[in-house]
Amino acid sequence: MNNYIIGIMGKKGSGKSNLIKKYMLKNMVRYIIIDTLYEYEDDRIFYNIDELYDYLKENKDRAFKIIFRPENDNDIEILFQISKTINNYTLVIEEVDFYADTFHINENLLYNIKYGRHFGRNIIWVSRSPYEINRFLTRQTDLLIVFKQTEPRDIEYLNKYKFDKNIQLLGKYEYAISGDLNVFPFSKR
């Protein structure tokens, strides 16, 4: 079972969500996107956790492409609980630092990071800065994709990784990769 955790980092407007939309979700048939900033439009959108839960219960073994725009933090907690009951899908988490910051990580998200590979649960997480993210999540990330960074502290942290390009020389919408590209081969390069 091919399982992965992919991290994507970059400044606002650098192309993170565009990369996910155009190249990563393209061939997926089962995913849930936590869309706190209203970046996604093409799939079934839920605002209410109860409606989302009912839909997933009915479609647990079918294809689903879901955008979830939570109304409150409790809805996210419930979604992370629900996510532990679904197998063979990808959870895309925009602004992951809301749920896995440097000091705290959501307990149900942590469970999926630790044990999701046994159930075909993949994670694609997105953040602006490496210093905003919990170290457990970054340690478990198989593939790290980084768009242009300018904050010296972020660059210093990211220079500890081996990227295929110099992250300080990236142009607009360019990115560098560190890790095993085979965990998730996608067509843009």
Descriptive terms for the model:
single chain, 189 residues, alpha/beta, Rossmann fold, 6 helices, 28% helix
Task: Give the CA-CA distance, first to last residue.
Answer: 25 Å
Kindly give the count of domains: 1
Q: Note the overall shape.
A: globular
For the residues shown, what is the average pLDDT? 91
Please identify the top-level CATH class: Alpha Beta
Multimeric state: single chain
Biggest sheet: strand arrangement: 3-4-2-5-6-1-7-8
Q: CATH topology, what is it called?
A: Rossmann fold
Order of helices and strands: EHEEHEHEHEHEHE
Rg from alpha-carbon coordinates: 16 Å
The strand count comes to 8
Secondary-structure-based class equals alpha/beta
Q: Can you describe this structure in just a few lines?
A:
With 189 residues, the protein is α/β, with parallel strands linked by helices. It has six helices and eight strands; from the N terminus they run βαββαβαβαβαβαβ.
Tell me about this structure.
It is a single chain. This protein is α/β, with parallel strands linked by helices. It has one domain (5-183): P-loop containing nucleotide triphosphate hydrolases (Rossmann fold). It is built from six helices and eight strands. The protein has an eight-stranded mixed beta sheet with strand order 3-4-2-5-6-1-7-8, covered by helices on one side. The two termini are 25 Å apart. The model has no long low-confidence stretch (mean pLDDT 91).
Secondary structure blueprint with pairings:
Layout: E1 5-9, H1 16-24, E2 30-34, E3 44-46, H2 49-59, E4 64-68, H3 73-83, E5 89-93, H4 107-115, E6 121-127, H5 135-140, E7 143-147, H6 152-158, E8 175-179
Parallel strand pairs: 1-6, 1-7, 2-4, 2-5, 3-4, 5-6
Antiparallel strand pairs: 7-8
